[in-house]
Amino acid sequence: MSDRQIAKKKLKKFLSSDLGVFFGALICCGLWGSAFPAVKIGMQELGITSAMIPTQILFAGCRFTCAGIAVVLIGSIMHHKPLYPKKSEFKKLGVLALFQTMGQYTPYYIGIAHTSGVNTSIVDSLAYFFSIVVACLIFRLEKITWKKFMGCVLGFAGVILISVDWGASLSFNMSFMGEGMILLSALSYSFSSVFAKIFSRDSNPVMLSGWQFFFGGLVIIAIGLLSGGHFNPWSGKAIAIFIYQVFISTCAYTLWTILLKYNDVSKVSIYGFLNPVFGVLLSALFLGESQGFQLKYLLALVGISIGISLVNLKSKSKTHANEMRKENQ
To answer: 39: buried, middle or exposed (CB in 10 Å: 19+, 13-18, 0-12)?
Structure first.
C-alpha cells in the first residue's frame, strides 16, 4: 500500500469518527454562518436592494458557477488528475444541480426578499429536520429513533429561541412568496443531502459537488438574466466579498458532501442547527449587531448541543459494530 493510499485511509477513518464529523461540520457551519454578513455587505457594495430579485438570483448564479470551477480545479490538483464526470454520472449531476443549487437557492433568494429574517431563520432551519425525515422514512437509509427525533426538536427549539424577540408581541404570518419559498428551499435541500450521500457511494464527492455547482449555477445565471438581472460596476471590496462567498461554497459544501458520504445523514445534518447561531454571532461581530451577545443565544447553543449529542449517542455494541463495518469497507 502506497503512502498516498495510507493517508487516504487515515483521512477516511477520521472523517467517519465522531471527532471528525464534529470538526468538519463545525467548519461548514462557521462558514455558512459567515455567509449572511458577507452577502449583506456584498449586496450593499453592489447596490442590490431586497426588491431586486432577478439581480440577487444572478449574483447567486455567478457565485455558484465560480465555486464549481474552483472545486473542480482544486479537486483535480488534490487527486493528481482531472476531475470530470463519466457519461453515466451526468444524470446524478442533473439531479444534484436541480435540488441542491437551483431548487435550494432560487426559491431562497425570492423568499428572503418577501419575509423577515426571523421567519427565514425558523423556516429554513426545518431543512435539517427534513433531511433526517427524508433519509429515515422515505429512502430508508437509516432508522428513526427517539434520540434523533428529540435531537431535532431541541435543535429547532434553539433556532426559535434565537430568532424570536420575546419582548415584543409574537406573530408568524405566512405567505407563499415569503415563507412558502423558504419552505420549498428547505425541502429541496433535504432531498439534495440524501441524493448526495447515495450518489457519492460510487462517485467522487468532490467531483459531484463541483460539477453540480457549475451546471446549476449556469442555469441560475440564465434565470437571472432572462428576468432582467444586471450588475452595477464592482468595487474592489465587492470583488473581495464575492471571492469569499465563492470560497464558502467551495469549502463548506464539498466538505459537507464528503461527511455525508462516510456518515449517516442524521449524524451530519443535526449540526446544521448551529448555522443561525454562527450567523448571529458573526453578524454581531462584523455588522455591529450587538444584540447577538445575549443570554438567549447561550441557552440556544446549549439546547442545540444537547440535541447534537442525542443524535450522536450510540450504544457501545453498535459503535463497535460500525467500526468493524468501516474497517471492512
So the answer is: buried
Q: What is the DSSP string of 95-124?
A: HHIIIIIIHHHHHHHHHHTSS-HHHHHHHH
What is the rounded CA–CA span in Å between residue 85 and residue 105? 23
* Helix H or strand E encompassing 78: helix 53-79
Residue with cell 459531484: 208
Spatial neighbors of 285 by CB under 8 A, at least 6 apart, are 37, 292
Q: How far is CA 91 from the centre of its chain?
A: 22
Q: Output the nine-digit C-alpha cell for 178.
A: 415569503
The answer to whether the pTM exceeds 0.70 is yes
Cα→Cα distances 183→6, 56, 80, 237, Å: 43, 19, 40, 32
Residues 6+ apart with CB under 8 A from 268: 21, 25, 193, 256, 259, 260
**For residue 84, which phi and psi values (nearest 5 degrees)?**
-140, 150
C-alpha–C-alpha distance, residues 137 and 143, integer Å = 8
Sign of CA dihedral 231, 236, 240, 243: positive
CB 56 within 8 A of CB 259: no
Would the CA dihedral through 187, 274, 36, 24 be positive or negative?
Answer: negative
240 and 119 Cβ atoms separated by less than 8 Å: no
CA 79 from centroid of its chain's CA atoms: 24
Give the 3-state secondary structure of residue 329: coil
Query: Long-range pairs for 13-17 at CB < 8 Å and ≥24 separation?
Result: 13/326, 15/258, 15/259, 15/262, 15/263, 16/262, 16/263, 16/326
Over the chain (329 residues), the average pLDDT of each successive run of 10 is 76 88 92 80 82 87 94 89 92 93 83 64 72 82 80 76 60 70 87 90 91 95 93 88 92 89 86 78 68 64 76 55 47
Q: Distances in Å between the alpha carbon of 272 and those of 124, 145, 185, 295, 315?
A: 10, 19, 15, 21, 24
